[in-house]
Amino acid sequence: MLKSYIVLFFILLTISLFAQTQEDIEYALNEIAKPLGGVVNDAVLQDANTLGGLPHFQITGGINLRTVTFRDPNNPENNEEWTAGAISFEGRVGLFKGKSIAPTIGGFGSADLLLRLAFYPMGEENDKYFVPLFGLGLKLGILRESLITPAISITGQYTGSSKFELIDEESETYAEFTMKVFSLRADVSKNLFIVTPYVGFGFNINSLEADIWYYDQFYSPVYDTYEVSPSAARFYAGLHKQLFFIGINLEGGLSGDTFYWALGLSAGI
Q: In the chain, what are the domain boundaries?
């Protein structure tokens, strides 16, 4: 079943109704946490350069899409597929310019502060809402791009949500969730005059906390608390095109076992 990116079919509630063991629910949570964490945090949408210290800043808006497949562990033929996506905004402020260690070799120790706001669509087709997530990160420059050298940087970032709830009135199932994502990545880029390609690799730790209330097969109320933290490696490549103070970014990559693509527009000085 393919859903539009703006409508997420949250398979956990369906699975929890038929789960015979806690392992089934933990499996479902792990399968949900992997794409959920990736879709709000995977898109880089910038090259490897730092901004060069104050007063430089940049604001980027983007969209990240991927196709997600959920496999029912109790019924291999009962698979669900949908397109998940998120909208994100990231502000970047140059903190330190860094040091030159040789002619045309500079930017060592430069740093940018990253502030992220992402929105993840949740709910059914007739009852949609957006879960906000807030992030904070630091981008450290190892090498600033020059005529003979590429740009190299390392970025660490944390993104988390407040509690959000999901209710299935038909089965009388209620759940509260909190999503936290920690990511670390390394990027390399080089301006080829017409366009700046960038490549990178990293990993995410996607933590999902869940409080679930439901009725078992004897119609007795059950309350369980879960926390899963699956990790996922990611590899990606993108193109950055700068037109005066406006930047356009197109990116694709592999996060865990899922391909994604992202598109972004940035502005700054």
A: 11-268
Q: How far apart (Å, rounded) are the C-alpha atoms in residues 234 and 236? A: 7
CA angle 251, 236, 137 (to 5 degrees): 90
Q: Which CATH architecture has domain 11-268?
A: Beta Barrel (2.40)
226: Cβ contacts below 8 Å, ≥ 6 apart = 22, 25, 26, 29, 208, 209, 210, 212
Q: How many CB atoms lie within 10 A of CB 124?
A: 13
Instruction: Supply 194's token pair.
Output: 């017409």
Band of residue 57 on the pLDDT scale cut at 50, 70, 90: very high
22-41 helix and 11-18 helix, angle to the nearest 10 degrees = 170
In this structure, what DSSP letter does residue 99 have?
Answer: B
Residues 174 and 214 sit within 8 Å (Cβ to Cβ)? yes
**Separation in Å, CA 107 to CA 142, 150, 176, 186:** 6, 11, 44, 15
Question: Which residues contact residue 154 at a Cβ distance below 8 angstroms, ignoring those fewer than 6 apart?
Answer: 139, 140, 142, 184, 185, 186, 187
Candidates 150, 160, 141; CA nearest to 56 is 141
Q: What does the H/E/C string look like for 195-244?
A: CEEEEEEEEEEEEEEEEEEEECCCCCEEEEEEEECCEEEEEEEEEEEEEC
Q: What does the pLDDT look like over 67-98, one tens digit per residue? A: 777 776 666 676 777 777 888 999 999 999 99
pLDDT averaged over the chain? 83
Residue 11 is which amino acid?
Answer: I
Average confidence (pLDDT) over 163-180:
77
Please state, in angstroms and rounded to a whole number, the distance separating the CA atoms of residues 158 and 2. Answer: 30
